[in-house]
Fold these 4 entries.
Entry 1:
Amino acid sequence: MIELDQLNKHYGSLHAVRDLTLHVPGGELFCFLGPNGAGKTSSIKMMTGLVRPDSGSIRLAGIDAVTSPVEARRELGYIPDMPFLYDRLTVHEFLLFTGDLYGMEREHVRSEAERMLELFGLLEKAHTLTKELSHGMRQRVIYAASLLHNPKVLLVDEPFIGLDPHSIRLIKDLLRERTRQGMTVMMTTHILAIAEEIGDRIGIIDRGHLVACGTLDELHEQNEATGGGRLEDLFLRLTMQENAG
């Protein structure tokens, strides 16, 4: 469902993403890890169409996201690390607005909005202006809006920043359930324990290079780690090696 081939992005002299090739099938929760500035967010933004790649190809749900960006975005949900909401809209109005952007029929939008409000515990906040919401509630609204059109691919950039334990559990359970239903989820996070807990596969990127990719067991095998070990140890060892090189 996500196919990246030889993807490259420069910002001036900085080669932010280097020949990134990665395939994530339907029904997989893929955790994309790396130090700050490693190329995670640049990769995500190229997939969303917010940033244009210098070279390489991106296919989302079988659609070329570079040559057919509008069609690709119809199959895509995106939760950024710093969500943006229209402060003068209520939660319910924001969901209706989002549904209109995706060309959904108004009655279908209304029924799905009601379902999302209930799912994310937002019914009591439905007629509250988004500017009056806490960070955690704003994150819930973004999830509700991103899933409103039932996308085939969901990109999630640092989903747990500033969330309380209840919200973290809600999001983890939601991501697991959606992948069981066939959705492709690609998530960046700095919380390695969560990646270890919920990721079907893990990719580690550093200085634009994909330095490792696979299940946790496969990562240990590829890098001759012994005794299983923690993901944190493996992550630190791989990125330190890359930086030392």
Entry 2:
Amino acid sequence: MKVLLLIRPENGDERNSYYQKAITSFGGEVIRVCDDATEEELLKKLKGVDGILLPGGDIIGNWDFYLIDYAIKNRLRLLGICQGMQSMAVWKTGRDLVGIGGGQHNNDEDDYHHFVTIKESSKLRQIIGKDYIRVNSFHNFTVYDGGNFDVVARSDDGLIEAIENPDHPFQIGVQWHPERMLEFEHDLYSEKLFRAFLEKKN
């Protein structure tokens, strides 16, 4: 399966490499495109891809909304992580991100920090196999329910932690960083999420 990976310059080589490794570890092929690419360059890269990964970052990127539109219209698989999920949530709503400050949500990406409850009837619940899991956390903003996607997971303090398109096999956004937790071999839930994303089924 070919996956378009949006490269956010602010992430640097190390953070961008975690996403690439997560894709290739489960048999995917990475097509990289930088967030400052031209539309012509982007369209060329999109030819023949099966899915799109919108990674974490500091701000909503130049091409986030375009790529979400493209994935929806062409029924591509879509995985939004942290900032990528936030972009999915505010896509077409005009709503801003909401600052949350520090606390349990702005911690190291490489360790567990809080629990999330996953909606029982959701695709994410089917993939993960549990309705209450621990996740890592590294974000300064949260989102309101914009109605673009179903809210399917929340933290114990009520923040939106995952969204999904109920009308597609895999268009899911998560607020945590599963690509980082793959470094810990015991994090089965991150592995399950990427395996499901990289199944070429529509």
Entry 3:
Amino acid sequence: MINGFLSLIKWPIAFLMILMIMPAIQSIEVVISQGVNAYVMLWFALPFVVTSIAFFMLPFLSGSFLAIMEHELTHMLFAILTGHKPVDLEVNQNKGGYLAFQGEGNWLIALAPYFFPTFAVVVMLSSLVYMGMGKPLPDLYWAIFGTMCGYHLVSTILEIHPQQTDFKSAGYIFTIAFLPGINLIVYGLLLAYACAGWSGIPSFMSLLMQHTIEFIGRLI
């Protein structure tokens, strides 16, 4: 049932992601202009930039056991979320990984590692522990969050190439149409969270919706 639904919305989602590229860029610009300050630059942006540069200069890091494991765990997460039972997981240093599951799969499982920042989301969810204890988040938390976001950005870029079997599974045309828009939205959400915490997420979505409606209005 879930696979059938995902198949039904596949191309409408691709079209929507194309439409939302410019609105997402506009929304990110607003977040940067209104929310970025010296604190955010020091504890989020600096680790983000340093990590990104390190991964670009040392591309072998993208083939590390941890990077491959995150990639395959993201496949596994979305396999489970869409009703598939994982049956085998292999991770080989510098050689890649493999996930086997019951069922035919879908485009969301195939493309999840290329837009969903699993480690960064884990860091975000860990903040709920601090909130539950009534404690403020330490500065180191935001440094770790920035590091995980920078890691995801570069590892994703380095994993994108024409021979990628995940893209073949989802369809090359769909992949090209879907990934740019969804990644802009995801990184807009991550930036909004870095600037304003959990309240930044609905604020960014509201901005995105507003700019999308305006953009569609101009097209019409």
Entry 4:
Amino acid sequence: MTNNPWKEISLDIYEAHMKQEDVKQLQALNAMMKQQLNSYPVKELMILGVAGGNGLEHIDPDHFQTVYGIDINEDYLQSASQRYAHLSNILKLQCIDLCTQYQLLPHADFIVADLLIEYIGIECFKDIIRHVKPKYISCIIQIDYDDEWVSNTAYHDAFQGLQQLHQRIDGERLSEAMQKLSYTLLLTHSQSLPNHKELLRLDFQYND
């Protein structure tokens, strides 16, 4: 795999930054993910950028046959495996660089991609969707209303290496890209955050 700055950020630092009172992304994502996971009648779920598994506690093992958790950081996946050992019968964790190894992804009926597209880009995401061919997609992107895309916390400097990857993604551009792949926008939902930021959820369904 290529040297990706996400491999250099420890899970402890990532989660400590995300749950700061003036950030609150970890908490907001957890609540939004609970809604995502219970939205569609599917048996195979793929979570792109699963990290340490925030939100996996909302998975009903009687509902899903298989849950794929994909991330580029092996340490994140090991933590997720330990935290959610009760899901071991259905949780399949795979260390994959989505931009160079997406062909290794299995098929899944439903893809969840939260705060991921900003770091792989829309074209890479389209390649993933063409390969996996999900019926449903649910994405969460971050909308920044100022120039700072990383909130200013004590852990701010740990994320500076991500500057080489980060792209600002807006809902309209993402929707247009999915429409070109025959996906119809089903739902939009926004959640305000501190520091002039917003989480925007967009769900799509494939047109047979």
